[in-house]
Amino acid sequence: MTKADLSASTSGGAPAPLVEILYSEDCPNRAAALALVEQVGAELRLKLEIRLREINDAGTAERERFLGSPTIRVDGHDIEPSAEERSDYALSCRIYRTEQGARGQPGERWLRAALARAQRALP
Fold first, then answer.
1. What's the count of helices (H) and strands (E) in the chain, helices before strands?
2. Residue 68 in contact with residue 43, Cβ under 8 Å?
């Protein structure tokens, strides 16, 4: 089992939201994205299933609707609110427009909102 398969914390026997971190090998922001997911999951005391997925070619980027590295998805949905409207799929580093300015990873607020939606959707 790799670190990516570990849960951030436990919360009884409740189903765990799936958090995917899609990345390209050349982009340095994967570790920071993983740290963000683990930190927020731990703060919220959520059991998370975390998967790291490397995207390594343009065809896969298009098929996966990969908007750049890192892309964080919760239960299959990109955490960036406007991501569904975008089609600029690319094998590149992703720049997020956050409250703190342009960053190489999304803001914590988007991740928290996505995890809250996932929790509400659980049975």
1. 3, 6
2. no
How distant is the alpha carbon of residue 18 from its chain centre? 9
Residues 49 and 68: their CA atoms lie apart, in Å, by 21
Q: Which residue is listed with tokens 């089609």?
A: 87
User: The pTM is what?
Assistant: 0.84
Q: Report residue 119: phi and psi, to 5°.
A: -65, -40
Q: Read off the pLDDT of residues 63-93 as tens digits, 9 standing for 90 and up.
A: 999 999 999 999 999 999 989 999 899 899 9
Q: Report the relative pairing of strands 77-78 and 71-74 from DSSP bridges.
A: antiparallel
What domains appear along the chain, each with residue ranges and CATH number?
3-121 (3.40.30.10)
